């Protein structure tokens, strides 16, 4: 069975206030063309269809167009909700849409209710695990501790139980939206840390033939059978070096991977990061290749130059981001607060603040209190997103 694996469309998202809607529409066209030309048997979309819980109308219209084009193509499609989606909104009309061959899996309770497709070698069961916010789904899965690993493990126990009841000849594909250990993150993914932990081990997914992951925006191989497709477009300059693509996967008669090919996605414009003193950036002949790219420029001038953006856009007309990072000695009192915090998470910053205020860092009990406070804030934000 030939499967086209994609994820993280983030319909409605912009890049530094530049609308990506046209580029997203081009990607949808590319997806449909790829599915037709490669005669795929199924398309899987592993979450974050939209960029936010209440997407703009233009994004909803583009999604509607994608559904119609995939249905017209006659290729069964399985989609799950991600942490950016409103599961309830995305799942509206799922039963009716399913009659057209577009199967939306947004309810955690249905994770062991697969979409079963058949080819010449028998059945393939597609299990859709929507993003599982631990605090919101722990009761559904009967776990005491709200953590990513515990709820995903419980969901996969249900999947394996259903698969075992189907007999040994049924092949299996799991769609999941999670941060799996070994994956490389970018600046584009929303933090899903719970209890100080964001990732889950790949072993949680043992027992199935292929795991189609979403959430991380870089295409990557966690294991031969566990892969991220990545987002089809770059949504931050941290993705400047990504090769945006989809996975074309072939499952053999016994569930073995007989092929795994990356299909490149169209890029509206390359991304480039340049760094240096302003005058050097304007004069360096090696940077000519970036003149038509979307540019993030980091200026290292010790004193902020006059009209830097105006001067940069004379050479790099598509400059979107301007960062100041003056070259100074570490002991210089003018080293920015932001620079001192760079690479530190909320928990570390809070612990440093406690140390600064009272002269001693938090003990283990206090660290737990801080961690639980941050988890509560993230959970509250998720609840508000779902309710909107």
Automatic annotation (TrEMBL):
* GO molecular function list: 3'-5' exonuclease activity; endonuclease activity
Q: How does it assemble?
A: Heterodimer of SbcC and SbcD.
Residue intervals of the Calcineurin-like phosphoesterase domain: 1-218
Per the entry, what this protein does is: SbcCD cleaves DNA hairpin structures. These structures can inhibit DNA replication and are intermediates in certain DNA recombination reactions. The complex acts as a 3'->5' double strand exonuclease that can open hairpins. It also has a 5' single-strand endonuclease activity.
Q: Which InterPro entries match?
A: Calcineurin-like_PHP, DNA_Repair-Maintenance_Comp, Metallo-depent_PP-like, Mre11_N, SbcD, SbcD_C
Q: Can you name this protein?
A: Nuclease SbcCD subunit D
Please tell me whether the keyword Nucleotide-binding is annotated for this protein. Answer: no
Q: Name one GO biological process term.
A: DNA recombination
> What are the protein's UniProt keywords?
DNA recombination, DNA replication, Endonuclease, Exonuclease, Hydrolase, Nuclease
Which SUPFAM superfamilies does the record cross-reference, listed alphabetically? Metallo-dependent phosphatases
Q: Which family does it belong to?
A: Belongs to the SbcD family.
Q: Name the source's superkingdom.
A: Bacteria
Domain Nuclease SbcCD subunit D C-terminal, chain residue ranges per copy? 268-356
């Amino acid at each position: 069975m030939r499967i086209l694996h994609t994820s993280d469309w983030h319909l409605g998202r912009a890049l530094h206030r530049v609308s990506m809607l046209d580029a997203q529409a081009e990607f949808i066209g590319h997806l449909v063309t790829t599915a037709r030309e490669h005669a795929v048997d199924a398309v899987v979309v592993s979450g974050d269809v939209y960029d936010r819980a209440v997407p703009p109308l233009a994004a909803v219209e583009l999604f509607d167009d994608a559904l119609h084009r995939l249905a017209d193509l006659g290729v069964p499609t399985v989609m799950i909700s991600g942490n950016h989606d409103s599961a309830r909104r995305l799942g509206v009309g799922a039963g009716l849409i399913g009659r057209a061959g577009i199967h939306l899996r947004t309810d955690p309770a249905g994770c062991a209710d697969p979409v079963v497709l058949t080819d010449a070698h028998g059945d393939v069961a597609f299990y859709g695990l929507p993003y599982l916010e631990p605090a919101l789904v722990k009761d559904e899965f009967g776990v005491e501790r709200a953590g990513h690993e515990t709820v995903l493990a419980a969901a996969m126990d249900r999947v394996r139980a259903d698969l075992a009841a189907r007999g040994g000849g049924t092949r299996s594909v799991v769609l999941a939206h999670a941060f799996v250990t070994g994956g490389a993150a970018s600046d584009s993914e929303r933090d899903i840390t719970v209890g100080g932990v964001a990732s889950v081990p790949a072993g949680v997914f043992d027992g199935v033939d292929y795991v189609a992951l979403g959430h991380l925006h870089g295409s990557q191989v966690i294991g031969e059978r566990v892969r991220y497709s990545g987002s089809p477009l770059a949504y931050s300059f941290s993705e400047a070096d990504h090769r945006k693509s989809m996975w074309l996967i072939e499952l053999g008669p016994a569930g073995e991977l007989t092929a795994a090919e990356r299909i490149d996605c169209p890029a509206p414009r390359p991304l480039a990061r340049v760094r240096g003193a302003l005058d050097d950036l304007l004069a360096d002949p090696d940077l000519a290749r970036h003149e038509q790219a979307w540019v993030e420029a980091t200026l290292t001038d010790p004193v902020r130059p006059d009209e830097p953006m105006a001067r940069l856009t004379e050479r790099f007309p598509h400059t979107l981001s301007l960062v100041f990072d003056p070259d100074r000695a570490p002991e210089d009192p003018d080293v920015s607060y932001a620079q001192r915090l760079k690479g530190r998470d909320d928990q570390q910053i809070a612990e440093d603040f406690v140390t600064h205020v009272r002269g001693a860092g938090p003990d283990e009990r206090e660290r737990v209190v801080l961690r639980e406070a941050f988890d509560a804030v993230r959970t509250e934000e998720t609840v508000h997103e779902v309710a909107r």
